[in-house]
Design goal:
Largest sheet of chain A: 7 strands, mixed
Number of domains of chain A: 2
Strand content of chain A: 15-25%
Shape of chain A: globular
Number of strands of chain A: 9
Oligomer: homodimer
CATH architecture of the largest domain in chain A: 3-Layer(aba) Sandwich
Order of helices and strands of chain A: HEHHEHEHEEEHEHEEH
CATH class of the largest domain in chain A: Alpha Beta
Strand order of the largest sheet of chain A: 5-6-4-3-7-8-9
């Protein structure tokens, strides 16, 4: 794969720069130095330069980075300058919260349909997105060639949902369940690890006592 | 600090083992070998042994690990065998979803109160947790000596909320906002990086095309 060269920590930091730059832009700023970014974001100066270099932009001595150019470069690099359609499977609390999270649109994600098993939810609209029965998933995703499936069902149901998404030709799965999914190597799986984050917090808190 | 020796990736993997072991236990299994864990979780065999060693348990040749002992060791190591009280600030979609996420109780987290600015929400119960006005936050958290604050407000509001939590003597902040928080070094901050996870997914998806 051609993406081997971009380290995962760099990829994971890019949204931090992006959020920070968007905030500065909202405040009317037009340029920013790597050293100010380094200080404000608490990331080493050389690391800031390495991270931003992957997007192809380079700072100008004395001037630094033009904020609009840098935002544009990061968005294009992550493909966040266009909306990629996604479906969400599991219209429970978490699924519903994600549907209401408008900020995803700034991250290139457009959730177009939701699926659930619960008859009370079928046909309802959650934050303007219609909930369909999970039996319709394969047909809908195939017909619309949706590339991203978001799994917000329980761990027990997650593998079955993943199988359906794979059958439907999904290209990438954003997995909020705790299940380790088995999918063909051609399917990208990105696990959201709330538990991992909580483990760090819990452990460090315990160490204080 | 005495926790320097436990690498962050190990900490972050422990919940994966825990979820996996709990599932096996539900299925009636009593023992498991490190090599089976390695295969099922797609983590190298030597890594599995190193990860589990931090909890103090050791496998028995031929028998492997007793599942109940391993679950207990991981839970104690993460302090997940007792419930630690937390408050959540921001009772919007995400806050409400987290309140409804009962699985947190299996991760040692008990969300006892919620806070918001929105008058329509004050006094309501969301998933059995009462929503109070944010003006009551400092008094409530101080009085009950709540150690964990969960921030689910917008990036713009997050620093102000963090300041209130610090004033109230909070020990750790689980930050779901996109804001980089400035807090005294004595306060633990763990950022939940949904955007980072989505950045990995988006970039790898783009590389396919």
């Amino acid at each position: 794969m051609s993406d081997v060269k971009v380290p995962s920590p760099t990829l994971r930091r890019l949204p931090k720069y992006l959020n920070y730059l968007r905030r500065l832009q909202e405040l009317g700023e037009v340029a920013i130095s790597a050293s100010t970014m380094s200080r404000d974001l608490d990331i080493q100066h050389t690391q800031v330069r390495k991270d931003l270099a992957v997007t192809g932009v380079q700072g100008v001595p004395k001037v630094g980075h033009k904020i609009d150019i840098l935002i544009d470069a990061i968005e294009k690099f992550l493909d966040w300058n266009t909306l990629t359609p996604a479906v969400i499977v599991g219209a429970g609390n978490l699924g519903s919260a994600l549907l209401g999270y408008r900020a995803f649109q700034r991250s290139g994600l457009s959730i177009v349909e939701a699926f659930d098993l619960n008859q009370d939810k079928i046909g309802q609209k959650l934050h303007d997105v219609t909930v369909y029965h999970i039996d319709d998933l394969v047909n809908h995703v195939k017909a619309k060639q949706i590339p991203i499936g978001i799994i917000t069902v329980s761990a027990k149901a997650a593998q079955n949902v993943a199988n359906l998404l794979v059958d439907a030709g999904i290209q990438a799965i954003w997995n909020f369940s705790h299940e380790k999914l088995n999918v063909p190597p051609s399917v990208i799986v990105e696990d959201v690890e709330l538990d991992s984050s909580l483990a760090e917090l819990s452990y460090h808190l315990k160490q204080r006592h």
